[in-house]
Amino acid sequence: MRAGFIDFIPALIATVVWGFVTGVAMVKSGLSGFEATLMTLFVYAGSAQLTALPLIESHAPLWLIFTAGFIVNIRFIIFGAALQPFFRHLSWKKRLGLGYITSDMVFVLFMSKYGDAKERGSREHLWYYLGIILPGWLSWQIASLSGIVLSAYVPPSWSLEFAAILALLALLIPLVNNRAMWACLITASVIAWVGQALPLRLGLVAAVLGGVLAGVAAEQLQRHRDAR
Question: What residue ranges are annotated as transmembrane (predicted)?
């Protein structure tokens, strides 16, 4: 658990900045402090929250808001399938709890360390995972609640959204250290850029799927070359 926490420290700044931006955005979109607090506690999904906010502000139907949030977070189906071998021995309640506090960065950090492990489902895996997700959840909630409280004092000229993107990039770029990761990054970036005009953030979904497929294809191609 301590090792997981140490590995999460570099992601702390990005998590805090993104959480703060989301907290500010919720209040700026017209939610009351109480509503924004409930959303950050129960939803806990920055991209889905930011997708839902303009729909809520425009009084879109409830089914559309839920559909948009589901589409944006559909990548977690892929994450869950990849993590399943490590935690399938746990009860469904415990797996549901882990799923609630799993985030993109948690998945990246965990799979970077144990993705190629031959033995899966050990106590080490669970405690390392807890060492990442618990400080991740806590730092996000503190930052998001701070954004809710301090939103009235944050001028639009600060461009916090851009700061959050820079923080995430600073965290992700060092993880791109092989051809498969580069293929994933470039493919996802191109698809996300081209798909900006798609409704319900479908460009993001397409970018996730395209990036995963490109990364897998590049890894298989590299293994084939190594075998030859």
Answer: 6-26, 38-56, 62-83, 95-114, 126-150, 162-194, 200-218
